[in-house]
Design goal:
Distance between the termini: 30 Å
Strand order of the largest sheet: 1-3-2
Number of strands: 9
Structural class: alpha+beta
Helix content: 25-40%
Oligomer: single chain
Order of helices and strands: HEHHEEEHEHEHEEE
Shape: globular
Number of helices: 6
Largest sheet: 3 strands, antiparallel
């Protein structure tokens, strides 16, 4: 793992789960002061400056982070386990979305549905390929097809994060179908 990747993983931890790991505070919308974040990361023995932080934001394949307009604030786009209001607007999802998981979780999911677990939302993908990548991270992948159009018609809200991850609070079993094993 490159130095930049290691810094990105730590910044993800700070901005999504443990701001105190860098001795910073996030505002109610998940924003961190960029100067405070840089200082906090450096206090941990890691070395970062504004140009490195900008490079991390620009090159992150998952587009995890966003700056505000004047780049004085930064936040993670989704994936938080701490309560923040990302100011997401309700969106109309496509008829089907996908969720990648590991085969070992399938029995629980098919009896209880998809739950956010330690996060604020269930994460869903536009396409099978992205869901499969996610599932592979956890073991033998299983792709679940989510009937998001039906959910929306039943009044369940969906949100689209800055990095194009679909979010919803939970997915009941009746909206799930195993796409592939």
């Amino acid at each position: 793992m490159s130095k930049l990747d290691k810094l990105s993983v730590f910044i993800s931890l700070v901005l999504r789960h443990k701001p105190d790991a860098a001795g910073i505070v996030l505002d109610e919308h998940g924003w961190a002061n960029v100067e405070e974040l840089i200082s906090g990361v450096n206090r941990t023995g890691r070395r970062i400056d504004l140009s490195i932080l900008k490079e991390i934001v620009k090159t992150d394949k998952k587009r995890r982070y966003s700056f505000n307009e004047d780049e004085s604030l930064i936040r993670a786009n989704q994936g938080h386990s701490i309560p923040v209001d990302l100011e997401l607007k309700e969106q109309e999802p496509p008829e089907f979305l996908y969720h990648g998981t590991a085969e070992r979780f399938l029995a629980d999911i098919m009896s209880e549905g998809l739950k956010p677990m330690s996060r604020l939302y269930v994460h869903l993908s536009y396409d099978v390929e992205t869901a499969q990548k996610v599932g592979k991270r956890h073991g033998k992948p299983v792709i679940l097809e989510v009937h998001s159009g039906w959910m929306k018609r039943d009044g369940i809200p969906f949100y689209l994060s800055e990095n194009d991850v679909w979010l919803t609070k939970k997915v009941d079993v009746k909206y799930l179908r195993i796409k592939s094993l």
